[in-house]
Design brief:
The chain has helices at residues 2-18, 152-155, 178-185, 212-215, 256-271, 286-298, 329-347; strands at residues 22-25, 32-34, 38-39, 45-47, 53-59, 62-79, 82-100, 107-114, 121-131, 136-137, 144-150, 188-194, 237-241, 276-278, 305-307. Residues 1-18 have low confidence and may be disordered. The protein contains 7 helices and 15 strands.
Length: 355
């Protein structure tokens, strides 16, 4: 009888262990990050750039993240490729947030993406906990990777707003911006290095914050001046969309073209002869168009560097405009559609048959 009791105890312990929740630190090899991140000594991972996302495959019926936020951010949660909704993170002290629950017991793929800008918050992820068997495994990166250097257009500023509305953090969503649409079309991963109001040589209305030329080499957008290690990844394409703010509010910087050339050379100094697409913003005024025409001459001898054609009146009032005259998600779809053939030509990536 005693042996039977001991045997039952061991069986019960085995069943409990088999279905126990499992926690892994953020720097576990089965947790992958796409974007610029800082890996901490305690196993945490910290980041602030818009668009950064973390992925993992877990076995269980629910998943929780232990997180802290310096400021606030909005994040999209995807399970098995389907969006569950947007979550608001705030609170400097580490705390647990349930990302998904009530799932069928089995393997599920999680993607958690920050869709708001770094100036509003810096995120620190400490760990993930899966309810059930709790096994984790890594998500295989996509074969293609795009890096985007931009301003509010690339941040998805106002993408979920209305034409008469002004900026609210909750209506910013980079996932609905043109570059993420392009990445989805070509089944590519995407890293976004962007900040609203920033220019190549001059910020919106001449604001004295660091321009994107100064921000681009940094690990964080708005929380430190640590240099970024460009060996973390090598993109297959770099898209640059800067200039709207340089030539805003009667601005016309003398060094826009020279800074642009320097930016391209900086990109290639780290990534080699990667293709670089310089986007002519859909809202480009005559002064920006003139500067880009000058830039075209400056880069004529740079193989694999191309300036896209103007997109006048692509984004129209009453249908395609979100907050503060920025494109909404429909406007971004139009911008993406004009750039997709150019991307295909530059990279050799096949376009879909059903376009």
């Amino acid at each position: 009888m005693r042996k039977l009791t001991i045997l039952m105890l061991f069986l019960t312990m085995g069943i409990t262990t088999a279905f126990a929740d499992k926690t892994v630190k953020a720097n576990d090899p089965n947790i992958s990050f796409t974007g610029r991140v800082q890996r901490m000594d305690d196993g945490a991972v910290r980041y602030d750039w818009v668009g950064t996302y973390v992925q993992t495959i877990f076995y269980g019926s629910a998943i929780t993240v232990r997180i802290a936020e310096e400021g606030e951010s909005y994040n999209l949660v995807f399970i098995d490729g389907k969006p569950l909704g947007k979550i608001h993170f705030s609170g400097k002290e580490p705390h647990d947030v349930v990302l998904a629950k009530g799932l069928s017991n089995g393997n599920h793929c999680l993607r958690l993406q920050k869709v708001t800008e770094g100036e509003f918050g810096r995120t620190t992820i400490y760990s993930f906990t899966a309810k059930g068997k709790g096994n984790f495994k890594a998500v295989k990166p996509k074969e293609r990777l795009i890096e985007v250097i931009g301003d509010s257009y690339s941040c998805g500023y106002g993408a979920e707003g209305t034409e008469k509305s002004h900026f609210e953090l909750k209506t910013e969503n980079c996932y609905k911006a043109y570059e993420c649409a392009i990445a989805r079309y070509f089944d590519a991963d995407c890293v976004i290095v962007a900040h609203s109001g920033m220019g190549m040589a001059r910020n919106y209305a001449g604001k004295t914050m660091k321009t994107m030329t100064l921000r681009y080499p940094l690990l964080f957008d708005d929380h430190d001046s640590i240099a970024y290690d460009f060996k973390q990844y090598r993109p297959d394409l770099v898209i640059i969309n800067l200039g709207t703010n340089d030539f805003s509010v009667n601005g016309a910087p003398d060094n826009y073209v020279s800074n642009y050339v320097r930016m391209i050379k900086t990109v290639r100094s780290h990534y080699g002869d990667v293709p670089v697409l310089c986007v002519t913003p859909h809202s480009a005024n005559i002064f920006l168009l003139a500067a880009l025409k000058e830039l075209r001459g400056q880069i004529a001898d740079m193989k694999g560097v191309r300036i896209s054609e103007p997109m006048p009146h692509i984004v129209v009032s009453g249908h395609d405009i979100g907050s503060d005259s920025h494109p909404n998600w429909r406007g971004h779809q139009k911008i993406a559609a004009t750039l997709i053939p150019v991307v295909a030509t530059m990279t050799g990536w096949e376009m879909k048959d059903d376009l």
